[in-house]
Amino acid sequence: MLQLVLALWASVMTAAVYGPIGLGWRRRARIRREMLRLVATVEPEPYRAALWRNEATEAASAELVLGGHLRIDGEGAAFLTEEGRDPARTPAHPLPAALLEAVRRHDPEPVSIGWIDRYDEEYVRRRSAYASERDALLPDLPRMPDGEGNRLLACCGCAGLFFVMMSWGLVGVLLVAERPQGPGEWVCAAVAALGLVALAFAEKAGREVRERTQCGDPLGDRIRAEPHPALAALDEGQRRHVVRSIDDRDRWRGVDQADDDDEGDEWLDDKVWWEDAYEYRATDEDEDEDEDEPEAKGPGSG
Asked: CA-to-CA distance for 9 and 191, rounded, in angstroms?
């Protein structure tokens, strides 16, 4: 009789533990299929994909170089070509168009693409607006449940785990303490023992379910798989110049550098003016002293 009670008890605990695991597996598998289906329908625009890879400005500069709008030298300084100065030859895509207009604002001073990417407020604003506009067209991907949102459910899970552990120990002790009598009791004891073994592997089963149904970042994986076409079309020399211009954020600053140089020249002019004025005043004082000396000696000599 005791073995029958232990078998029923172990079976109920096993069903109570593995039931939520099975339901969670089914739910996670359904969410995973839905997510992969939605990702398969997305055709990310190349520049939006480049934004996800943090290389949108690099791709835009590559397109401008290939289109003959920009010339980037070996030191990373970008210059407009005659075609780049022509307002009628502006690219159709908003991102390279915004970058070209930013370079035009610095013309004829050399400027690095990295300086524009970080400090040109108008370009940064237009790039962010483009990203927001493209993000609005993406479907809402479902999220995998993590079990951390509902505190009540988490508390119930902790209480249930404590109860199962206590029951598992009690059933194990009673199963060993009472020797079965007859085939029926041996069968019940075997069922109870199998239930205890299954409960011992419940945590591993739940972890295996999470690993098998985890899909990671399928949209990001798809985006990172292919580079931007403009970047792929660059030759080795062009790619090296573009990368150097992207990495340079302090040396070539366009009109901002020219303004700083003008301020330095103004300070230098002021300094020279004060030095000249000081020397002029010192010369006047020396001349006055030379004129006063004969007048001072005249009466004494007479």
From this structure: 10
The residue assigned the tokens 């459910």 is: 153
Judged by DSSP in three states, 78 sits in: strand
Q: Where on the phi/psi map is residue 42: left (φ > 0), alpha (ψ -120 to 50), or beta?
A: beta
Q: Over the stretch 176-187, which tens digit does the pLDDT of each residue have?
A: 677 777 787 788
Question: CA dist 213 to 48, 157, 207, Å?
Answer: 28, 21, 10
Residue 9 sits at φ, ψ, to 5 deg, of -65, -45
Q: What is the pLDDT of residues 164-178, one digit of tens each?
A: 777 777 777 766 677
pLDDT of 226: 77
- DSSP one-letter string for 182-204: HHHHHHHHHHHHHHHHHHHTHHH
For residue 38 the two structure tokens come to 């939605």
Please compute Rg for the chain using Cα positions.
Answer: 40
- Express the helix, strand and coil content of the chain in percent, nearest 5 each: 75, 5, 20
Mean pLDDT of the chain: 77
- Residue 120 has which token pair? 């040109």
Residue 96 burial by Cβ neighbours in a 10 Å radius (0-12, 13-18, 19+): buried
- Say if CB 49 and CB 229 are below 8 A apart: no
Q: Are 94 and 80 in contact (CB under 8 A)?
A: no
In which residue are the tokens 């009466």 written?
A: 299
**What is the distance of C-alpha 269 from the center of its chain?**
47
Residues 6 or more apart whose CB falls under 8 angstroms from that of 168 comprise 13, 196, 199, 200
C-alpha to C-alpha distance for 200 and 14, rounded to whole angstroms: 10
Q: Which tokens sit at 112?
A: 């690095």
pLDDT one-digit tens code per residue, 51-69: 888 889 999 999 999 999 9
